[in-house]
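Contributing: when you submit paired examples, paste them exactly as shown. First protein:
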Amino acid sequence: MTFDRVPGVLGRIVRERAQDYADAPTDLGPARPRPRLFHAALAREGLHLIAEVKRASPSQGRIADLDPRAAALAYERGGAAAVSVLTEPRHFGGDAQALLDVTGALTIPALRKDFVVHPAMLREAAEWGARAVLLMVSVLGEAVGTYLEYAHHVGLDALVEVHDDAELDIALAAGAEIIGVNNRDLTTLHIDLRTAPRLIRRARDAGFTGLLVAESGYSAPADLEHVRGLADAVLVGSSLAASGNLERAARDLMTA
């Protein structure tokens, strides 16, 4: 695949990651059982938190010098249903060790959050103990269906991310079981909290019966009013990471 069509900051990051994996083998190895632990963690009744171990971002720069293991354990104590761990090194301060440290300590499932551009990244996620991986329609386009099959082959659930109507149509056609709606336009970095509830309703109207996750821009309980009763989970990173007290911030955010 080539990624020249991906615009803006997202395009630059994606092309960097593609170069990182240019020589990686594509072999996924034998099929692994898929326990669907990430799916199960979000499928229970109510709105659940996927709390993110996030040290930096292109929009904010350095956020916090988090110890991934300690941060993830704090989120777990604060009631998070799952943890998302950045492994992109240049712009988000992530790495493989961060994910390994988290998965070695938690009882709740972890998502590898990165800009997946190569099958090797899925094999790595499984080997590093993740239970799910992020697949971005804005990056993979129509190939997201193939990468969904790859993820399932190595035993992972997949959070298939969209941020507009056209991407949602692709995710639905690909057979996604978990769809995340990102309020942030990754080409402009602009956040619009109306995006998630609108596309979540559209997915349900189209007959989607899987899980739906609202992503980006949430920092207070009031921000969640428009996704309660619609989404199964929210994925929150920057506001938690910068809070100074991750356990309390996670618990307070989800207080209705």
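Second protein:
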Amino acid sequence: MDVAATVDQQSQQDVPFYEPVGNECELFEHAFRQHLPFLLKGPTGCGKTRFVSHMAARLGRPLYTVSCHDDLTAADLTGRYLLQGGETRWVDGPLTRAVREGGICYLDEVVEARKDVTVVLHPLTDDRRLLPLERTGELLEAPDDFMLVVSYNPGYQHILKSLKPSTRQRFVAMSFDFPPPAVERDIVAAESGLPAQQCAALINLAARLRAMKGQDLEEGVSTRLLIYCATLMVNGVSATQAAQATLVEPLSDDADVQEGLMEAIRATFGED
């Protein structure tokens, strides 16, 4: 298949770490049990994907994750005929497999996909819960254990890439953001093994760098990047070098902006 999809089948005893910041876990469970599709909105690296992975394992359902892109078509999700062993055979796409198995299909950054994708999703996001496969003549009815989850980053929306109101109103929706400082500190410490006191300094630095969003930076420092930084630090890389590699270089190529970021880093950690 052309689409890059990951499949996780973790047991409830092997639940990926996730630190709740509100009632998001309970809301997701209610949506799952009432057969409602779920929409996550939030900036890059704030924990949307980890949250879905956590909830899939918690509910004991296989998770099909698709990273959407400009070339993603409806056929990539539903399936197509392929030549295998000298004969043409139908091969299910990740959405179809999730429907057949009763799994969770997660479309990350759904607004990046082509417009025909939303057409396929519509019958699955109302009381019909159907997936028509025109090429095979099948009409699949989603089982109770199937759930459709999509996400996007509103900060990157523009006129050519947005989710239509008619599509958004088919979902239970929740906004995600970076966790509160104390929660983010605990997340970074748990994921990296860096002592909480050093993680607190990183969180304070992140707040200063995020304040630059919309001025010098297009996007704020993600929790994911903070974990990367802490992971380097706990493995012997100096704080300044780790921060430069994870909090400066990925965020900007502009020399002046990078120097501004480095000033904040040196003010936090001092000179190496």
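If you have annotations for the second protein, write them as plain sentences, like these:
The chain is about 40% helix and 20% strand.
Strands lie at 5-8, 38-41, 63-67, 79-84, 87-92, 104-108, 130-133, 138-141, 147-152, 172-175.
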